[in-house]
Amino acid sequence: MRGDKFARGFPGGWGGQFEHARGHRPGGGGPFGGFGPGFPFDLGGFGFEGRGRGGPGRGGGRRPRGDVRAAVLVLLGEGPSNGYRIIGEVTRRSEGEWKPSPGSVYPILQQLQDEGLVAADPADPKQFTLTDEGRAYVEREYGDTPPPWETLDGGPDRERVHEFRRQLAALAMTYKQIEVSGRAGDVRRAGDVLEKARRELLAILAEDLRETPEG
């Protein structure tokens, strides 16, 4: 499901929106109306839209970090490339969770060149390819391991995050079905359920904060 069917953010917190949901009258556009403004989850932050604003790896959590050396070598194992394309490809394959900086990629390319694992194209010094030694190294070191953008350090388990997004989308669809039914009592009950879920999620967050050591 695409993010443009959902809310574009949620200023002001969840509480007031759930209060509005419990008191909502059918036909008024509703807190979930068309999954537009007022939907009480910022689904963009969960990855339905571009992941740059509040998504995984940004915001309050530690940004996922990967093995830049491994990423460069694995991608060069697929074919010649340059630093710019390597950065873009890592970002794309990690779905925006990891974007290595030029300051990390280009020194790695130089180091690998010094080690004899990669070589610059004489016709285009910015273009790099694996040497025979480099291909053997990649096969030996990374042939049987997941690519580094699938094993990020500091990020949540990717499959669990994806499952959470699917559950959140299903929740939105279910609420929409209740809202369009036209029964005010059902909408109010749905709002109560959402408010209870919100409080339980906040309790989980509070537990995590208590268990996280400072510094």
TrEMBL record:
Residues 72-139 form the Transcription regulator PadR N-terminal domain. Residues 45-66 are annotated as: Disordered. InterPro entries: Tscrpt_reg_PadR_N, WH-like_DNA-bd_sf, WH_DNA-bd_sf. Transmembrane segments: none annotated. Residues 45-59 have a biased composition (Gly residues). Gene3D superfamilies: Winged helix-like DNA-binding domain superfamily/Winged helix DNA-binding domain. It comes from the Bacteria. PANTHER family: TRANSCRIPTION REGULATOR, PADR-LIKE FAMILY, TRANSCRIPTIONAL REGULATOR YQJI. This is PadR family transcriptional regulator. It comes from Kineococcus rhizosphaerae.
